[in-house]
């Protein structure tokens, strides 16, 4: 019987909770007392290093030595360093050219603003370096359309150019790549409207853009380099979102992306942070070809102050977004023209063949899912808010469960809506913004999101009136996945900085279309881990074509598409932190009662809010409880403002046999889903 199976798993969890050793999942609650190997920020080193630690691409054959660097040309390179110089070689000069005095001499001894700008460009040039050459591209700061001619190879206040001798020359090596560095939203608006077709200012002041052929993520085209380190650390195989690729293929795609970006007249560079906890924040650099992408990441990452930017230095992680350029389908592992490639050893991500900006956001989330557990920090796909007395609640839930609605509470401060870390210091938001769905958005239903759509906000793939520029949020002509990305401070009750103390409550949300889960139930640690790993909700007719009856869907840790390690590792860390800090787990059903979808009724939002309020206030801890069959959930007998008869699903079903059949069916689905996790060893 399924209830015996649950009881067995639960009894093991409860009996072993105080002895934390991390073995098989049936001992998962033995929390880690020893932690990971080290808590330092580190990456595996790659062999055969070239400039700035980048591995050289080597060639073999002929009479060349094995350690020679690949050259682009089979003939001696031209002497010109720029296209203008190349053109000038066509004509003989009648008089000598007067050299610029002091061109090779530094203008100052100590670091100055000019020197800092030069160092900044040197860092960016290194990021854009081809692996076949020892130097990065020539980069100059500023918009090329505002310059009358290519600047000379010198550092000036108008043009800051980093120049170093090259070992080989190609057409791309003759040109400057203009760097548009950490532009303001106003500047990015100008760039998008002038140069990117499909960019418009809406009536609310937001920037409307198009993401091209891809209007959502491409999980089947996302790959992770599998090397000696990630072989043992990451989750591979059945159920895993991690599709493997080798190091060589990654470097091929990286070269393709870098060559494309360096061929452009200008690229956008954002230097920003992840994680509001200053002790554990990560420096990220995003190199992109579109103003839309730059503004999106400006909103979604944490924006550095001028002082922080001066001290930014070398990034911890770099994204090369060449999404306007496809990958080569003949490249090994490629199955389409799209490829999103993550190399944790090189600290780099490459995007080819998709302009959907959400790939950058979720790609970095995956990076945090890898890096943070190394520091004994739990990364979470959750909403988070805080009461006026400092009580923090985490909200987990898949699409349609009400995570955004319930975590957005005018009586509480919003720490974040999607991605968080739980460290020894408490909780912190990973991001600096929100990425909200816009389909059917209204001021009445979601006033905070509606009012956040103003100047500075990026709107993806929305439809608007060609004359008034008013957005029609119900129009799905482009896609149903319309989105808005805006800084978190656009939400009136956002807590800035986005950090809080240790959570008091962990709320797991499920929209149960089978109608058998209680509206609210209290969980012990073992049950919290079980339902956290399961990540259950249900699809109903109308949400996807072909669905005639409720279909259970499971997403491990309520975000299986983004996690890097095995789900049990995150679950063990969650239970450890909950036990240490006294947090309580809750399962809240926002779905159906009195019958399954089609015969029962959706639980009223007003009732769900009363239950959440009782959780926040602590009054629900004082309630009397009874236990359900099959899942063994503890349900309260009374909650103020909620009809008592709906608290136990068995009371609301007129057909008791049909209720038990539905409950047993759902229990069987849980059991089948969980089997893949039973024999997994977390770590030794």
Compute the separation of the termini in Å.
32 Å
Strand order of the largest sheet: 1-2-7-8-9-11-10-5-6
- Total beta-strand segments: 32
Runs with pLDDT <50, length 5+?
12-52, 54-80, 86-109, 148-169, 542-546
- Rg calculated over all Cα atoms: 28 Å
Question: Would you mind describing this structure in some detail?
Answer:
With 684 residues, this protein is α/β, with parallel strands linked by helices. Helices cover 25% and strands 20% of the residues. The chain has 16 helices and 32 strands. The strands form eight sheets. A nine-stranded mixed β-sheet has the order 1-2-7-8-9-11-10-5-6, with helices on both faces. Strand 13 and strand 14 (392-396) form a beta hairpin. Helix 4 packs antiparallel against helix 7. It starts with a helix and ends in a 10-residue tail after the last helix. Mean pLDDT is 83; it is low at 12-52, 54-80, 86-109, 148-169 and 542-546. It is found in: Cytoplasm. This is phosphoenolpyruvate carboxykinase (ATP). Its EC number is 4.1.1.49. Pathway: Carbohydrate biosynthesis; gluconeogenesis. It holds the Pfam family PEPCK_ATP.
């Amino acid at each position: 019987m399924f209830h015996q199976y649950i009881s067995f798993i639960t009894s093991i969890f409860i009996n072993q909770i105080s002895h934390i050793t991390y073995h098989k999942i049936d001992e998962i609650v033995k929390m880690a007392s020893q932690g990971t190997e080290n808590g330092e920020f580190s990456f595996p080193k790659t062999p055969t290093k070239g400039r700035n630690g980048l591995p050289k691409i080597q060639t073999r054959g002929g009479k060349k030595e094995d350690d020679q660097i690949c050259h682009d040309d089979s003939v001696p390179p031209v002497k010109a360093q720029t296209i203008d110089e190349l053109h000038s070689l066509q004509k003989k000069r009648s008089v000598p050219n007067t050299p610029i005095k002091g061109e090779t001499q530094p203008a100052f001894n100590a670091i100055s603003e000019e020197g800092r700008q030069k160092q900044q460009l040197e860092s960016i040039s290194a990021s854009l370096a081809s692996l076949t050459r020892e130097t990065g591209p020539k980069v100059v700061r500023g918009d090329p359309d505002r310059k009358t001619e290519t600047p000379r190879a010198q550092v000036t206040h108008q043009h800051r150019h980093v120049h170093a001798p090259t070992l080989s020359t190609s057409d791309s090596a003759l040109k400057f790549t203009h760097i548009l560095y950490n532009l303001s939203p106003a500047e990015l608006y100008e760039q998008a409207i002038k140069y990117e077709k499909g960019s418009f200012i809406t009536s609310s002041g937001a920037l409307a853009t198009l993401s091209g052929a891809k209007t959502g993520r491409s999980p089947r085209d996302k790959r992770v380099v599998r090397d000696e380190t990630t072989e043992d650390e990451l989750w591979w195989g059945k159920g895993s979102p991690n599709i493997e690729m080798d190091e060589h293929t990654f470097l091929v795609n990286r070269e393709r992306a870098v060559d494309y970006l360096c061929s452009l007249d200008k690229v956008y560079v954002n230097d920003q942070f992840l994680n509001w906890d200053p002790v554990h924040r990560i420096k990220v650099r995003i190199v992109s070809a579109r103003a839309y992408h730059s503004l999106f990441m400006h909103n979604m990452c944490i924006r550095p102050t001028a002082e922080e930017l001066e001290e930014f230095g070398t990034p911890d992680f770099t994204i090369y977004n060449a999404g306007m350029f496809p990958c080569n389908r003949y490249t090994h592992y490629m199955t389409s023209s799209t490829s999103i490639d993550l190399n944790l050893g090189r600290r780099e991500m490459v995007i080819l063949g998709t302009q959907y900006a959400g790939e950058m956001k979720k790609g970095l989330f995956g990076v945090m899912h890898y890096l943070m557990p190394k520091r004994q920090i739990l990364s979470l796909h959750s909403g988070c808010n805080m009461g006026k007395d400092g009580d923090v609640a985490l909200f987990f839930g898949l699409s349609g469960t009400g995570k955004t609605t319930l975590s957005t509470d005018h009586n509480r401060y919003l720490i974040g809506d999607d991605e968080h870390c739980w460290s020894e210091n408490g909780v912190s938001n990973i991001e600096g913004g929100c990425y909200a769905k816009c389909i059917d958005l209204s001021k009445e239903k979601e006033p905070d999101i509606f009012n956040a759509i103003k100047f500075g906000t990026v709107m993806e793939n929305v439809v608007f009136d060609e004359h008034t520029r008013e957005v029609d949020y119900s129009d799905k002509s482009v896609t149903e996945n319309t989105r808005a990305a805006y800084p978190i401070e656009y939400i009136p009750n956002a807590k800035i900085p986005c950090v809080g103390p240790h959570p008091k409550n962990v709320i797991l949300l499920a929209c149960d279309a089978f109608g058998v889960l209680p509206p609210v139930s209290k969980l012990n640690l073992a049950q919290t881990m079980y339902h956290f790993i399961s990540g259950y909700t249900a699809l109903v007719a109308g949400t996807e074509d072909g669905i005639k009856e409720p279909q259970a869907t499971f997403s491990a840790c309520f975000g299986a598409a983004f996690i890097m390690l095995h789900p049990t590792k995150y679950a063990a860390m969650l239970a450890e932190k909950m036990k240490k800090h006294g947090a309580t787990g809750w399962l809240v059903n926002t779905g159906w009662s009195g019958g399954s979808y089609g015969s029962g009724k959706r639980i009223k939002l007003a009732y769900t809010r009363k239950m959440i309020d009782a959780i926040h206030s602590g009054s629900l801890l004082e309630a009397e409880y009874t236990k359900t069959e099959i899942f063994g959930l503890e349900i309260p007998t009374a909650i103020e403002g909620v009809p008592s008869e709906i608290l136990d699903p068995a009371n609301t079903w007129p057909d008791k046999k049909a209720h038990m059949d539905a409950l047993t069916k759902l229990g069987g689905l849980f059991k089948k889903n969980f089997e893949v996790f039973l024999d997994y060893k977390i770590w030794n």
